[in-house]
Q: What sequence folds into this?
């Protein structure tokens, strides 16, 4: 399978865990801005987009929000998140094999690294920095506030690839590496490959049943991804 490949990584529970920093920051930001605890309980954040998580909590709380409130929430949430991650730096956990896999792919001339994540851009940067992963490693990015759904982030990633690499890429030469059925759904919706990693709340069997082309327990062995994508 000659030609360049685009490898898009999810962040949370795929590359790292913040041990609840995101949840804490969202809850505190909403309390500070709106004077009450929003109805966050029961919202499935796995594979979700930051703006949609806030919108769902606001809706459940019967709180009417517009662009101004959404922007204020984003700014305060990111500020609190980055402060929390920095304060608890020793608690932030890099997923097994994640950094080594990124370095392996960066060394390949036929691989382009990217992110496809539900995080706001600034949130992604401070999370990655906490585990010694540089946002600049990823030439192509699609963040949670750049499309109305996770599946539509696939088109954002393709457009960004075209802008950065000055050419188009066959969707079958793109893979999403993620830990949730939403990552798999996004890949399938865009004609990408779905490489699932069971380092989140979903076991490999469930991710395969959701349609993943391959699933592994963690990223310590790069060979399954290399076989799926490059051979």
A:
């Amino acid at each position: 399978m000659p030609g360049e490949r685009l490898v898009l990584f999810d962040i949370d529970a795929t590359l790292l865990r913040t041990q609840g920093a995101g949840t804490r920051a969202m809850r505190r930001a909403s309390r500070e801005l709106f004077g009450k605890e929003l109805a966050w309980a029961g919202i499935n954040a796995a594979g979700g987009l930051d703006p949609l998580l806030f919108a769902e909590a606001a809706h459940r709380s019967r709180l009417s929000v517009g662009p101004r409130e959404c922007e204020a929430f984003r700014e305060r949430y990111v500020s609190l998140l980055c402060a929390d991650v920095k304060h608890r730096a020793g608690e932030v956990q890099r997923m097994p094999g994640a950094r080594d896999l990124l370095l392996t792919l960066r060394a390949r001339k036929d691989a382009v690294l990217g992110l496809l994540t539900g995080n706001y851009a600034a949130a992604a940067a401070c999370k990655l920095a906490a585990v010694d992963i540089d946002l600049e490693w990823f030439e192509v990015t699609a963040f949670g506030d750049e499309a109305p759904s996770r599946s539509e982030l696939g088109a954002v990633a393709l457009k960004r690839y075209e802008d950065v690499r000055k050419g188009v890429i066959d969707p079958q030469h793109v893979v999403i590496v993620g830990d949730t059925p939403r990552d798999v759904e996004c890949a399938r919706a865009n004609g990408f490959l779905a490489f699932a990693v069971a380092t989140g709340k979903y076991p490999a069997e469930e991710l395969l049943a959701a349609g993943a082309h391959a699933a592994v327990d963690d990223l310590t062995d790069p060979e399954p991804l290399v076989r799926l994508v490059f051979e």
Observations:
- DSSP finds nine helices and eight strands in the chain.
- The first strand starts at residue 5 and ends at 9.
- The chain has two domains: 5-17+92-230, 21-89.
- Strands lie at 5-9, 16-17, 93-94, 111-116, 140-142, 174-178, 193-197, 214-216.
